[in-house]
Design a protein that fits this description.
- Two copies of one chain form a homodimer.
- The first copy, chain A, is of the alpha/beta class and 438 residues long.
- The first copy, chain A, has three domains: 168 residues, Rossmann fold (3-Layer(aba) Sandwich), CATH 3.40.50; 161 residues, Dihydrodipicolinate Reductase, domain 2, CATH 3.30.360.10; 86 residues, 2-Layer Sandwich (Alpha-Beta Plaits).
- Helix content of chain A is 35%, strand content 26%.
- Chain A is built from 14 helices and 17 strands.
- In chain A, the strands form two sheets. In chain A, strands 7, 8, 9, 10, 11, 12, 13, 14, 15, 16 and 17 form an eleven-stranded mixed β-sheet that branches. In chain A, strands 3-2-1-4-5-6 form a six-stranded parallel β-sheet, with helices on both faces.
- In chain A, helix 5 links the parallel strand 5 and strand 6.
- In chain A, helix 5 packs parallel to helix 10 and helix 13 packs antiparallel against helix 14.
- Chain A is elongated.
- At the A-B interface, helix 1, helix 2, helix 6, strand 12 and helix 12 of A face helix 1, helix 2, helix 6, strand 12 and helix 12 of B.
- Strand 12 of chain A pairs antiparallel with strand 12 of chain B, so a sheet runs across the interface.
Chain lengths: 438, 438
């Protein structure tokens, strides 16, 4: 059978990795796919720099539209990232009847609905395994491996940079800023780390996981996003003393009245496997009603791990290219006419979770009674409490509380009342807590 | 589109679970598959007992051949286990042009080559996700999710019973026999636990993982199998003191001269995620050259977790039933004409691994010199050594050694020489050790 022809948009880290993996494992990959996968064209920003990737049969161009308009290309791989011109290129490739593979989480989280509708209408596939958790085949696991299940929730460490920072904060006892600088020096964090440390990158990925888990359209704009920039070394230490680890978690959960979709620092019991995922590694925990908890762990970024997912998509598309479009795996796991477009994403006020609260309180009688009274009035029950003796000569001390599950809006008003107490200094620090049990 | 019709062979634990899951999640599953999956017939051993599963449109029969010969059935699900009549039924179903889903690891490990060849010739699918690691979609992950990779090795906790026993031995400090009795009382172990505790069940599953990882035929008869029955509480304790956990691991590794295929108790560094998989849970760690390590964790047995895999296979088969047979995922991950039939499975003598050695030595000068000399002569280097002070009044003590990687046959002859020393009492206890790094 004649080779399937691939055009790459972008030859940076992931594009270069894709080329390397395809070339190195060509024989192995062909033995699996039953057909050779050939990269015949690549669009690059800098033609001179890209010469190192040159090889027999690879044409380089500076114009990405030349790739998507090339009639010889069967599959376009979009690896330039960002929204524009990535979206225009993907839409044009679809219009030209080409299958698309993309690693672009931002694009899928933001414009996935429109892109998938166009692909569906045209009878082509858009594959995006590399968009979530790098080399971990998590899209495939949820979309095809767990089809028997009503999925209850998904919780993931889906940003390697922040997991690296949090692991270092815990291990070295350093604060956020110190560790971020170190991570930037080592190349684990970008010069402008906003997308990572503010949780935006994780929210893109979570949006995609939520859609395929529950059969809803991608709705990135409704995701709640809170980063790790305000976490202190103290909170990491207190959490550990209480038997927890702090991770930046993306959590999406089915509730009777809608879907929770939120990224924020989270305390997790240290006995959970996912609490022990350290460094830049990713892991996704999925709770299905039949299978129970399953966990998927691996490298979430990097040239070859991401290329691993891109190439797996290329093999999938190659296998299914000749199949009846109606029997391919639907883009968002559920048939397009069976998506729950009306299932609302819950606003953060309506989310239910447990909490870690830290506050600075005066060392005087009655403080604890006042605080616990406020919580009891709001129907919030306390799971654990830790109060340190004040340091020599200090008139105040840290009080740490763990609560059971409650509605976020209940917690907000309780926190406002606590902050109003004369014996409580400054703001209450609140970190959400998930037990990740049933 | 009209429903796809399924016939079940067996309505025991997994069969009953499959029916329950299909009924409970029917709507969700149809939204994914795009076509209703209906169980219309089931063969059972006891018609009376099976009445509890009765429902509209389900015909029960005591003769399984009635199911495989029923022209209305599209997919036969084999859940009776064992080799006969399971094999005859599966072969007949294939001959009749039906797709097959099976959870039968024994059957696939033993007769997979013949079954897949028949299915290939007939243009039907035989799906077996449930045969390995229950609800974890590990077949799909390796066969489809990691197609970009040259896989270096796979190491798995793929038998829940033995992992439960080992977890309990460690937690409670009890011996094998005590914990086995407890596991039998709780229903985690069978009355005759041989298949589990001798590693045979794990070897069946490992044989399948090895075939799909390396593109070789299933070769169960060449697997090395050693169970956990001789493990003592002491070894579990010493391993822990050295920073290791003991797990029954199935390991298959590519070497320049062939493939390692072995099941045995194994020391693993406690910092590895897989070392922290406890209770009856399963986990499989896969090392690919592009993606690096990825791990898959979940329930490896039980009615609904296994049904989760059976139903996922049903959805896959439903989606691909109308596809060109040449573009389906090949049974053993590689195209049938691209299997490496000539790649040998290495005999245990040729396996390379590290070791934990425990021996009872006389408390006298020169013992350590004799032992370390024997190891040095055999080119075996020592990684760690632990010798306890003899108990009050005792003239001998335990000596524990950890070695670096060496050939098993080297170790065998070194052990024989050590056992020949007058100062060493009885046999040397040997447990293999894997660092599970690169």
């Amino acid at each position: 059978m004649k080779p399937i022809k691939v055009g790459l948009l972008g030859l940076g880290t992931v594009g270069g990795g894709t080329l390397t993996v395809l070339r190195r494992n060509q024989q192995e990959i062909t033995r699996r796919a039953g057909r050779e996968i050939q990269v015949t064209m690549a669009a690059v920003r800098d033609l001179k720099k890209a010469q190192k990737h040159n090889g027999a049969g690879l044409a380089l161009t500076a114009d990405p539209f030349e790739v998507v308009d090339n009639p010889d290309i069967d599959i376009v791989v979009e690896l330039i990232g960002g929204l524009s011109p990535a979206k225009e290129l993907v839409m044009k490739a679809i219009e030209n009847g080409k299958h698309v593979v993309t690693a672009n989480k931002h694009l899928v989280a933001k414009h996935g609905n429109e892109i998938f509708a166009a692909a569906q209408a045209k009878g082509v596939m858009v594959a995006f395994e590399a968009a979530v958790a790098g080399g971990i085949p998590i899209i495939k696991a949820i979309r095809e491996g767990l089809t028997a299940n009503r999925i209850d929730w998904v919780a993931g460490i889906i940003n390697g940079t922040t997991n690296f920072i949090l692991s270092e904060m815990r291990e070295k006892g350093s604060g956020f800023d110190t560790v971020l600088a170190e991570a930037q020096r080592l190349g684990y964090a970008e010069a402008d780390p906003t997308f990572d440390v503010e949780g935006i990158d994780a929210a893109h990925k979570l949006t995609i996981l939520s859609a395929i888990a529950f059969g809803i359209p991608v709705q990135f704009d409704k995701a709640y996003t809170e980063g790790i920039t305000r976490l202190t070394g103290e909170d990491v230490k207190y959490a550990e003393q209480l038997g927890y680890r702090i991770k930046l978690l993306g959590i999406t959960r089915r509730r009777p009245n809608g879907i929770e979709l939120r990224v924020h620092p989270t305390l997790i019991p240290e006995k959970r496997l996912i609490a022990n995922v350290n460094g830049a590694m990713n892991a996704v925990l999925v709770m299905g009603d039949a299978v129970g908890p399953t966990l998927y762990y691996g490298a979430g970024a990097g040239a070859e791990p991401t290329a691993s997912a891109v190439v797996a998509d290329l093999v999938d598309v190659t296998r299914l290219a000749t199949a009846d479009p109606h029997h391919r795996v639907p883009h968002l796991a559920f048939q397009p006419d069976a998506l729950h477009a009306d299932l609302p994403i819950l606003p953060m006020d309506e989310v239910e979770t447990a909490y870690y609260l830290r506050m600075r309180v005066a060392d005087e009688t009655g403080v604890l009674a006042d605080i616990t009274r406020i919580l009891a009035d709001a129907d919030i029950s306390i799971d654990a409490l830790m109060q340190r003796e004040p340091e020599e000569g200090e008139a105040s001390t840290d009080l740490i509380l763990l609560t059971h599950e409650t509605l976020e809006k209940q917690m907000n008003s309780a926190m406002a009342r606590i902050e109003g107490l004369a014996s409580v200094q400054g703001k209450v620090t609140r970190i959400r807590l998930e037990t990740l049990g049933k």
